[in-house]
Design brief:
This protein is mainly β and 486 residues long. It contains one helix and 39 strands. The strands form ten sheets. Strands 9, 10, 12, 15, 16 and 17 form a six-stranded mixed sheet that branches. Strands 28, 29, 31, 36, 37 and 38 form a six-stranded mixed sheet that branches. Strand 33 and strand 34 form a beta hairpin.
Length: 486
Amino acid sequence: LTGTTGGVTTNGGSFNLLAAADTDNTAITVAIDTSSAGNKAGTATLDFFSDGDGTSGLGITPLASQDVAVTGQVFRLAQLNVAPSTVELHARVGDSVSQTIAMANTAANDGFSEQLAVTGVAGAGDASSSGAVAGLINAGSSDSGISVALDTSSAGAKSGTVTVSGESDGNTTSGFTNNVSLVDQVVNVAGNVYTTAVAQVNQTLVDFGIVHVGETIAAQSVTVENAASSSALNDVLLGSFSGASGPFSATGDLGLGLDAGDSGSVFAGLDTTSAGIFTDTATLGLSSHNADMADLTLSGVSVGLQAQVNEYANPMFDFVSGDGSLTSSSHTLFELDFGTVVLGSGLFTANLGVLNDVAAPADLLAGLFDLTSAGAFGLLGFDDFGFSGPGIFDSLTALGALDLLGGMAVSFDSSGLGLGSYTGSILLNPFGFNASGYDGALDQARLVFTASIVDGNSVPEPGILVLFFSGSLFLLVFGRRRRMAR
């Protein structure tokens, strides 16, 4: 062998003393360089000599050289590559979470690479796989029919592997029918599985009851618990309270979140600026949170809000009919003035009532009279009201908002009295109460009576004449009555 061309290789062999008609087919071999793929062609040049040693004795005579043409094709094995090689998955217990992987034949797509056969996909540990590969994978192509997943049947830190096995298949490319096993590719799968937070709200109605205008009302708490079972990994419960309107407010949140078994509070408030009967609804927005995943929105909880804001009872003496005039300088001081009357002119009478002078909703009004200082004035119908016994309030006989209790008469008889000015008074000790159990004493109200008697020679003012003639009419029977004015 004296030389090669075109990537032909030889073993550098030789032979000698080959007898006539003999053949040597082992001493010299030729081959193609397989360091690269593709079509191969070249020559190997053999120099021949005639050796007369042992025959003619003529020695060595050079003969003509011959070139041996060598051709062939070199194919690459398929190359298996799986991406990504590391998969991070996070889930909540019971979720179905997976990620596809791409299995690629990364051999050059130049017509001289074998196809890739995926022969096996096996999960281990907490990892598993699903799906299938759609046949052989050509060079330069990939298949994403396989997905990897984590076991989410329980909470905790999870890890495992998915191993992909493959072979180089030359049946339709190189023609080689014996597949060549390739190096396995391993996908590492890891992640965290969390137990979802479970919100428990036992109180879905906040009832402030009956309160009063201007009263400072403490905020009412609504307790929220994360009722999820404690596990290796738990979501925390996030929440905030909002959506109240009118006199109500809804405030507060669960901070950084409630761990399993923990509880926290949000708050409902009430503004008592205005009286009224109020209802509303606020919403507790909730979500399940962990550091690895997007928050999971949970069902919101509606919390009903209700309150009755009462005006305090407001007792007032009211002039119904008859003689005299009733005035007041404050809510606690009233004056019934019969004016100036003529000596012996007779009996003068004023019909009065007690009014709970406030719009609904309001406390009920009860009252106790002190009649010990009435003086020369006659009283009829000033009976205690709103009580069924000592210290026992009675809603049936109490005065509601704008209720009037009449049938009360104050009389002044000038016939049996001498000249001069006369005064007297009574006291009303009022109480307010309502169905919440509240009761309280109100400011004492005083009703003062005044009248003056002059002799007949005095010239009465026009107003006195009116009192004189009207005083001749006397109401013999007075009844207690209640009038509702809305």
